[in-house]
Write a structure and sequence with these properties.
Layout: E1 5-9, H1 16-26, E2 35-39, H2 45-52, E3 58-61, H3 78-83, E4 88-91, H4 94-100, H5 104-116, E5 120-125, H6 129-133, H7 137-152, H8 154-157, E6 161-164, H9 178-194, E7 204-206, H10 215-219, E8 226-229, H11 236-248
Parallel strand pairs: 1-2, 1-8, 2-3, 3-4, 4-5, 5-6, 6-7
Helix pairs in contact: 1-2, 1-11, 5-7, 7-9
């Protein structure tokens, strides 16, 4: 059975005092039986590592460079992330794809860099509202997966976590129904299996306005293995409630 995983993506939010208050609010509230990761902005990685270590909460970064070192001003390399205690890293988040023009080839290169450094990548995939309304949602997501599989190979893919995040449901308050999410998670697992990946071991998370109110219904679906949580991860009570729902599913 795949263990549930809940990942909190703080995006460009936080501050030293605010981080302390948030982590303090999670003390005693993170249940056993679920893996929990938080992804703060780069400047706070070391601070959050020190704060969250005693909670058994993993540390992740929100992005990384495809390069290991060099003259790349403003970028952060995978070995640097490992050096400050990161274990996880988000790759290909929709905001990186849409706001920074990151394509599938770059995403695959970043995943390769993460794996080389010993980080666990969380590959984000998902379709826009226009693509969904045009009946192309499964095609788009399968293509995003296929591009990475073709560059990394099936064996490497088995070591990834995949996060399905419909772009139209991120930060909008709209959420895919549990049935819609489950159908896409099945599509993702079938696409991976069709490419020779041991898809049964790959954890697939749902991300898209996950809240304490809808988490349990999402986690009840057999192919939804957890959540990539945005805004709700910034409120300790909400985030811990999602973790509790994951542990209970």
């Amino acid at each position: 059975m795949r263990k549930k995983l809940v990942v909190g993506n703080w995006k460009m939010n936080g501050g030293q005092a605010r981080n302390v208050a948030l982590i303090d609010g999670l003390k005693g509230a993170i249940p056993e039986g679920v893996d929990v990761v938080v992804c703060p902005p780069y400047p706070y990685l070391a601070q959050v590592k020190a704060l969250a270590g005693e909670l058994g909460v993993g540390l992740g970064a929100q992005d990384l460079s495809e390069h290991s070192a060099g003259a790349f001003t403003g970028d952060v390399a995978a070995p640097m992330l490992r050096d400050v205690g990161c274990e996880w890293v988000l790759v290909g988040h929709s905001e990186r794809r849409t706001l920074h023009g990151e394509g599938d080839q770059l995403v695959a290169a970043k995943i390769s860099a993460a794996l080389d450094a010993g980080l666990a990548p969380i590959l984000c995939v998902g379709e826009t509202l226009e693509e969904r309304d045009g009946g192309r949602a499964e095609e788009v997501v399968s293509s995003q997966l296929a591009s990475v599989v073709s560059q990394l190979g099936a064996v490497a893919m088995a070591g990834l976590v995949v996060a399905y995040e419909p772009v139209w449901a991120i930060g909008t308050g709209r959420t895919a129904t549990p049935e819609q999410a489950e159908l896409m998670h099945v599509c993702i697992r079938e696409s991976l299996a069709g490419a020779g990946v041991a898809a049964g071991v790959v954890r697939i998370l749902y991300g898209g306005s996950v809240t304490a109110a809808n988490a349990a219904a999402l986690f009840a679906k057999p192919n939804i293995d957890g959540a990539l949580v945005g805004g709700a991860s910034l409120v300790a009570e909400n985030f811990s409630s999602i973790c509790v729902a994951a542990a209970a599913s």
